[in-house]
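Service request form, structural biology core

Requester: graduate student, group of Dr. S.
Request type: structure prediction, single chain
Budget code: on file
Notes: please return the result as structure tokens.

Sequence provided:
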Amino acid sequence: MINSDHQLPIINKGERSEVCIAERAAIILEQTTSDGRLVSAIVGPPRSGKSTAIDALKVLLAQNREIKVQVVPMDGFHYDNAILEQLGMTQTKGAPETFDVGGLDAVLKRLIAKNQTESIAVPVFDRSSDIPFKSARLIDKKTTVLLIEGNLLLLKGGPWSYYESFTGPLPTNQMGWEVYPQGLSDFLVRTAKNITADLPLYITENGMANADVLHKGQVADAARIESAPASYA
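Core staff response, request fulfilled:
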């Protein structure tokens, strides 16, 4: 999380889920200045609560009437269905190669540039029609806090490697997502406390999200094996 005097947004990661969004909002408000744009991004797997967290964060930040908050989801940079059909990728929509990485990069650079003199249009993905609409949201030049949300910003390899310098201290899987065993523990404790009560909870996987590579009839997955004890401790 940085002011626009820098060249790229840094990713906030490796924190307890309850950490609270209120704490994050307080930190953002503390670092926000009247002469720059602060950018904060949340990265994680699909359906991990990124959009929900950002919505809650936006509500808290909006209570301060002196700042203007807007959100840029990475989903808007999906290739259009017509392009995916042309490339034979309709069945893999959402995979890294089905995003306009160059377009995302260009827009981010414009959004975090110093001395914003114009509002900037960004694309928005419409889930009901399953297509992105270009120039569907206008990021006002007076926006002081910009929230970026996406699941592939830290993916290793290819054009996504551009963002590798913004990784945190925790180990990552092949998708670039941090391996954070404490997150599973926090989730189970919160679920048992608020939802399931005395009902048993069964863990069927640890969500490592590494590809299984077969070698001589076996899968050598040292990273997954190493992470398991920490996840279930």
